[in-house]
Structures are given as C-alpha cells and as structure tokens.
Design goal:
This protein is an alpha+beta fold and 471 residues long. Strand 6 and strand 7 form a beta hairpin. Helix 13 packs antiparallel against helix 15.
Length: 471
C-alpha cells in the first residue's frame, strides 16, 4: 500500500514502469528518468514531498500511483493489450493514408477522437516512420505534415510540453525556440510598414537566419541518436523542412535586397509560419518522443557534441549532465601503428589528420561514417554524433539519391572517382569522392575530400620554395 511517507525511490525500484508514468502527472517528475536523481533524491523524497514538488494533492498522487500499480500488477482491463496497440497503430496509419488521399479533415478528426486516450507523440512519430517503411515517400509525409498536426492537435495538446533541467539539450532547444519567436514577433510587427522598415527587417532576418545553427545541431546530434534506436522518421521528414526554411531565408533576403516589398512581405509571412509550425512539431512531437526513446547516456553524448556546432542566440543555461554522471569513452592507445611506409603513434596520426589543409571523411563499405578530420576550419559542421551513422542520413533528402548512386557504382567497380565544384556562401568548394579498395580490389569504403580552392584557383606564375613573399 502506498502512503504519504513511502519513498519514491522504493516505489520505482519495485515498480519500474512508474518512471514513465509519473511524468504524465507533472513535468517536474521528468527528472526521475535520471538514474542519478533516483539514486539520490529518490532515496529520500517521500510521496508527500513529491506531491508538493509536482503541485499535486497528496491523496491525489497516492490514488494515481495505486491505480497505475493495480493496472499493471492486476491486469486492469483498461490497460491496452498488444492486440489493441496493434489495432490502434493500424487505425492511425489508415487516418494518415486518408489524409494523403484528400479525405475530409473534420471527418478524420472524429475518427481520431476515439483513439485520443493514450496516443502520444512517440506513437504518432512511429506510425509515420512505419508508413515510410511501407513505401510512402518521406517527401509526401513532409508535404502534408501540417495536416497531420491539425488532425492530432487535440491529442498533442493534452500533453504538457517537455520539462528538462537547465543545460539539457532539450532545454536549450526550447530556449532557442523562444528566442526565434521573439525575433519573428518583431518581424510581423513591421510588415504593415515594411517599405519604411527595410533596413531594420534585413537586420532581423540576419538574426533569424541563425536558426540554421539550431537545425544543424538537430541534424548532427539529435537525429543520429534517434537513428541508433531505429527512429529515422524525424530525420527524413524534418530535415527536408529545414531545407525549405533555409531556401525561404535566401528568397526573402533576395526580395529585400531588390526592394520588392510585396514579395518580401509574402515570403516573410511564409517563413514565419513555417518556422512557427516547426517549433510546434518539435515541442509537441519530436522532443517528447526523443525523451521517451533516448537514455541518459544518449543525452550526455548529444550534449557533448553540441559545442562543436554551436548555439543560436543562447548558450546552455547551466552545466549538464549532473555531477557524477559517467559515460564510457574509448581509451586511446599509445603504441605505434605500423603502416606500409612507416609507423605513427595514435597521437601523431591524430595530429597529422587534424592538420590536413582539407577536410576528409571516411565511410565504410557498409555506408557507415567511421571518421572525419577535425580540422580548425571545417567547411561544413560535423560532430561526434555522425560516427556510426549511415552516410545517406548525413545528406539532405533531395541529394540522397545521388550519394547512393555514387556508392553503388563504387561497390560495383564501375566507378572510382566522383568530383564536384560549387560556389557556396562566398567559397569555392572542390569536393571529391574516392573508392577505397584493398590489395585484392575489394571495395572497403569511400573517402570524401573537401577543399576550399578560391585562392588556389587564382594562382599564376611560379613561387619558389625559398621565396618568402606572399602570393
């Protein structure tokens, strides 16, 4: 029997499912997902103390806990069976298919109403992923993503936005969302007299464009962590929307530079609306689903890689994870590595690769990213979250087919090199892919080499080794 003096830690130790149940009563209980918190506060906090912390009446919390225990232990009929969960999933898939077929939205809302109880962000996200696996293109899911949210909105808004401690990656993401909302409000306030506010709006657009850092962190840190748990839907759908937003920023900038006020106003409304929709999807679907799926160790690794990419407008509000959290890291060997033409220690090899005047990335024969060089001025952002990730998931959806074709041709032996050169953000980039084969000609992976060649492309004449003058 549960009483006000029962220790929360003892309850969770006896009934582990309470770790997932308690946060549904109050977001302040999300901290109990942390093993460290359960091992410290959980051992001393009573149900009465937890009720005060969560803003609940003691009797209310006792009743809720006892009912949940009864539901699990005694097999309460209200608990969904495996068959019920499978049926619910099929109904959800049917609703989304009908959305894409153009069915009446109000009728779909009525059909969904019977499923609302217990349907959360993770289940909706999993269904969308299952549809992609069944053959529905990710681009099609993305195209009607807003309609999905409209149908499921009543269910999503029954769940409180996630609450995480300061410094946690989700806490920082949500701080950035608030900062972007503040900038967008200022932009909307100036749309009425846009012609007289062009210089100010250009400055605000430059500030808003920093949201690219927010999206880059998602793509390189959060999405890989989800993929390691088999959750690929968000990276396939959301990354495509990120690219839409990036394209809109460019179009708005061009309209403002050309003083095309009417087009700029229309595009700004589209931009603000699309970013606002993404904020809603992040806070009501992505972050809750991620908090449910990822372990404490996953979040620590996400946090450790964030500094390499940076933050938009804010920095983490506090150090995280809590002191005492440990994450296993691979040990670095010190013995020399013997190679065909010499030997280098681990430190020497690492330094050599870090000082290359270009970026290299190595992908295995199974298309998994195994290594990237951490050079001082990387052309494109990278973080440790990409290690072990399928290389196809490291590229925007619109270019995945080209990457896959090159790798397939490398594997088949019909191609050994692919090269490209593009102008991007004031830089002239030379990008090459090389098939890596062993002594028997077996394909062992792909080497990507990327170099900024603006200066190289302008070189003329000769510069001798002993000539100290600058070119």
């Amino acid at each position: 029997m549960v009483s006000p003096s029962t220790k929360i830690g003892d309850l969770i130790e006896e009934h582990p499912f309470l770790v997932d149940f308690l946060p549904t009563l109050s977001p302040r209980y999300e901290a109990l997902r942390s093993p460290t918190m359960r091992a410290t506060m959980g051992k001393v906090a009573t149900v009465e103390m937890a009720a005060k912390m969560g803003g609940l009446e003691v009797d209310e919390l006792v009743t809720a806990i006892e009912s949940e225990i009864a539901r699990h232990v005694e097999g309460d009929a209200s608990a969904p069976t495996e068959e019920e969960l499978a049926r619910r999933k099929e109904v959800l898939k049917g609703i989304i298919r009908d959305i894409h077929a153009g069915a009446d939205i109000e009728e779909l809302k009525v059909r969904f109403a019977s499923l609302i109880k217990g349907v959360g962000p993770a289940e909706i996200s999993a269904v969308e992923q299952a549809l992609i696996a069944d053959g529905m293109p990710a681009e099609e899911i993305k195209r009607l993503c807003d309609v999905h949210v409209e149908v499921f909105k009543s269910s999503l808004e029954m769940k409180k936005p996630p609450s995480t401690p300061p410094g946690h990656p989700v806490h920082t993401y949500m701080q950035e969302n608030q900062a972007s909302a503040d900038i967008m409000r200022k932009i909307v306030d100036r749309l009425e007299g846009l012609e007289d506010a062009l210089p100010e709006v250009k400055g605000l657009l430059d500030e808003l464009a920093k949201i690219d850092i927010h999206y880059t962190r998602k793509e390189n840190q959060l999405f890989p962590a989800l993929e390691r748990h088999g959750i690929t839907g968000p990276s396939q759908v959301m990354w495509a929307i990120h690219d839409d937003i990036r394209a809109l920023v460019k179009q708005v900038r061009e309209a403002l530079d050309g003083e095309d006020v009417a087009s700029a106003a229309t595009l700004l409304r589209d931009l603000v609306g699309t970013i606002g929709d993404m904020v809603y999807k992040e806070e009501h679907i992505l972050y809750p689903a991620a908090l449910e799926a990822l372990t404490e160790e996953d979040w620590v690794r996400v946090r450790q890689g964030e500094e390499e990419i940076g933050y938009a407008w804010v920095t983490p509000a506090a150090p995280w994870p809590p002191e005492g959290t440990e994450v296993a890291v691979s040990s670095e060997g010190t013995s020399a590595l013997s190679m065909d033409t010499g030997a280098l220690t681990h430190e020497q090899l690492n330094l050599l690769l870090k000082h290359l005047p270009f970026d290299v990335t190595f992908v295995s024969e199974n298309d998994e990213v195994l290594y990237y060089s951490d050079t001082p001025e990387r052309i494109f952002p990278r973080s440790a979250g990409v290690i072990g990730r399928k290389v196809q998931n490291c590229h925007p959806p619109k270019s995945v087919h080209a990457v896959t074709r090159i790798l397939d041709e490398f594997r088949a032996g019909t191609r050994d090199v692919a090269e490209f050169w593009i102008h991007l953000h004031g830089k002239f980039l030379y990008i090459r892919y090389f098939a890596v084969r062993d002594g028997k000609g077996t394909y062992r992976g792909c080497l990507e080499v990327m170099q900024e060649i603006s200066r190289i492309s302008k070189l003329e004449g000769d510069k001798r080794l002993l000539d100290d003058s600058t070119a």
